[in-house]
Amino acid sequence: xxxxxxxxxxxxxxxxxxxxxxxxxxxxxxxxxxxxxxxxxxxxxxxxxxxxxxxxxxxxxxxxxxxxxxxxxxxxxxxxxxxxxxxxxxxxxxxxxxxxxxxxxxxxxxxxxxxxxxxxxxxxxxxxxxxxxxxxxxxxxxxxxxxxxxxxxxxxxxxxxxxxxxxxxxxxxxxxxxxxxxxxxxxxxxxxxxxxxxxxxxxxxxxxxxxxxxxxxxxxxxxxxxxxxxxxxxxxxxxxxxxxxxxxxxxxxxxxxxxxxxxxxxxxxxxxxxxxxxxxxxxxxxxxxxxxxxxxxxxxxxxxxxxxxxxxxxxxxxxxxxxxxxxxxxxxxxxxxxxxxxxxxxxxxxxxxxxxxxxxxxxxxxxxxxxxxxxxxxxxxxxxxxxxxxxxxxxxxxxxxxxxxxxxxxxxxxxxxxxxxxxxxxxxxxxxxxxxxxxxxxxxxxxxxxxxxxxxxxxxxxxxxxxxxxxxxxxxxxxxxxxxxxxxxxxxxxxxxxxxxxxxxxxxxxxxxxxxxxxxxxxxxxxxxxxxxxxxxxxxxxxxxxxxxxxxxxxxxxxxxxxxxxxxxxxxxxxxxxxxxxxxxxxxxxxxxxx
Length: 595
Known about the structure:
Blueprint: H1 3-20, H2 23-48, H3 56-72, H4 87-109, H5 116-134, E1 144-145, E2 150-152, E3 155-157, H6 160-182, H7 185-192, H8 197-202, H9 207-233, E4 235-236, H10 243-256, H11 261-286, H12 293-307, H13 312-317, E5 346-357, E6 360-371, E7 375-379, H14 386-394, E8 401-406, E9 409-410, H15 416-422, E10 424-426, H16 439-445, H17 455-459, H18 464-480, H19 496-508, E11 514-518, H20 526-541, E12 545-549, H21 553-557, E13 562-567, E14 570-575, H22 577-581, H23 584-591
Parallel strand pairs: 7-12, 7-13, 10-11, 11-12
Antiparallel strand pairs: 1-4, 2-3, 5-6, 5-8, 8-9, 13-14
């Protein structure tokens, strides 16, 4: 059965479900829908963006309590009297309140990394939970009742069956918005976060902005779910917004498939139904009441993390025949290009660069230049300071002293994203790709700075023209480097040599005039090195400047126009390849002495 027929069947079942199932099962479906909205946000935040959060239940509470307060308070402050009464005003107010709170929490929390980030989300999740329970105007731990029913087109939605369609309409809209976002320039930027901040920033992605954006989207999804919950239940108290519920939401995302949009619905359904069954049967089996289902969930989570880390959704899709992927070259308008430098123009100039790490001097008075239309190689033994110099030039690290100029402009104080915008692009010593994305999508990340449409146009599908141009440019660069036959393959399935070539295509997609290549021949076989050398000669012939850090001397000497040799952080030689090969200081550095 085709995926489209399955989707049509799923939508048909959703449509007729309230008419054929019992009231209890309609209520269960309503809760699955509410939980799926929150889990969708966690798919974006955790599964795609790699940012683990245990505090999403608190954002559900913000949406629920905002509308509950505005809908039921008798003596509102004068400035917000006009906001009272209508649940729809409560929705807008909940979105505003959640945006403000999530923005502040995001700025504070997203600066953390590693295990500190989830610990931070636990901290503010607990704080908001106790805030809900200790504020008298929110009803304290007793809660708030008398919340009005939703009214839509003059009909009050007082019954679960009528409310069902509103909930699932919101779920489907959230799925559509999420899928649109992931299939866009901004979605690739979010996915690039998993490849590491250094890689993403070097491609022009403002990682801090992307983290805050995905954090806000996840919080707003949760807030809308809370708004629906409040008007479905018509009563709220703090219990559904505690840390243990936040953990359940994370269970749903992980069990369903945290990197898959439809996995959120699967996870919400499995956990909700399983929880209901376990709450019914475990007390009977054990002869005692208690939250025994949490023990089962804990064991299940361990099993999933060991045996099915991608969740249930990828397992389910194995049983569905996939349509053959479209392999047509993308078409779109040409993107604007920067003015090309003239052959021989000085692109990069490093003057008297020092880089110190405490008492260690990694670069000591280093100077070099790179011109348009030449390959300049930076070589030296391990530990000579080449990578540090490379990072100072590309903006990953800033020089302690000295200047770095790019096309006459001082860039020493700029970060790698700002330098990339000027026309300098790089690859990495250890390949940094997103293996579950296609070659085309990986290369398109390199063109991030050549687009301008933001998150909202992406979610609403209003950036299709720009997206077509970006993908067409990525395709042109893939063809340019000789990877046309692999364009629609997953990047992780390529051989190492092809992956290194893919990194060059990604760098070229940024429209640079200077390429920084960090050991591009490392680990390649002879024929792969020959193909790489031919590609670099081709780029040099087109006027590209190339700064090459490499250990393979045969590769360097057959390709480079000029060579700079480093040892112990200092430049010990500079000149033509044949001159450098005969320099006694270079022989001493590489061989430990001369006869």
